[in-house]
Design goal:
mainly alpha; 78% helix
């Protein structure tokens, strides 16, 4: 690679890093390509020359985020349905490290009218869920009649719905984790094969016990009804 190419790649990386920083401290709509160039210390024409549009810069930021997510997901092997719960854990770890950035990003994706940008975010993530569902079908954990595309869409909407609730500060991060896992677990249990359903339901019930309303229900039970619930 020649010096010109190295310089070009370095500038691209600088612009993406700067855009990511700006997304941490302000709304996506609150910075222009001119502001991006000024903060990055490059000419106002450089971001356009290298990316063409602000949407393309944001898409490059999304690509880096997704690559980081995939690296974390594949760092340790998961067994069975655990990989679906790992999606939630890794997401929460990233959110905890940089909450303002991920809140801004989630809200921007929800609010955008740019279908190209929205698809750039959603398609790789949907593809990941679809692959995980397909692999679970091949392992005999999900009924083979299930359409991987349809199930992945439903699981994704459930999961990203709780992410949006967290982004809007409707739920805190631990609640987002518990409710996302609970929803994913219920969705998977509905289509799990008999051989894999029992263990999955144990995990779902363990998650259910951590939900705030589970504690409230337990406190309302009379001693006799508590005994009935146990038996």
């Amino acid at each position: 690679m020649g010096k010109r190419e190295i310089n070009r790649d370095e500038k691209r990386q600088l612009i993406v890093t700067t855009a990511r920083h700006l997304m941490q401290v302000r709304d996506v709509s609150d910075f222009s390509m001119r502001t991006l160039a000024e903060v990055a210390g490059v000419s106002s024409a450089t971001p356009y020359a290298l990316f063409g549009s602000k949407q393309a810069v944001i898409a490059a930021v999304m690509d880096i985020d997704f690559a980081d997510f995939m690296a974390a997901l594949t760092a340790e092997p998961n067994q069975g349905f655990d990989v679906f719960f790992s999606l939630v854990d890794i997401t929460a770890e990233l959110f905890e490290k940089n909450p303002s950035y991920y809140r801004t990003g989630a809200q921007a994706i929800q609010a955008t009218s740019d279908q190209t940008l929205s698809s750039h975010f959603s398609l790789p993530r949907h593809g990941l869920l679809k692959d995980l569902v397909s692999e679970a079908i091949e392992r005999g954990e999900i009924c083979h009649q299930i359409n991987p595309d349809s199930l992945a869409l439903n699981l994704g909407h459930q999961f990203y719905g709780w992410i949006q609730a967290w982004a809007k500060d409707t739920v805190n991060l631990p609640d987002m984790v518990a409710r996302s896992k609970y929803g994913l677990g219920l969705g998977l249990a509905a289509v799990a094969t008999p051989a894999s359903r029992a263990q999955l339901l144990e995990q779902v019930l363990a998650i259910q016990a951590t939900l705030p309303e589970a504690g409230a229900l337990k406190s309302r039970l009379t001693p006799n009804r508590k005994q009935e619930a146990v038996s």
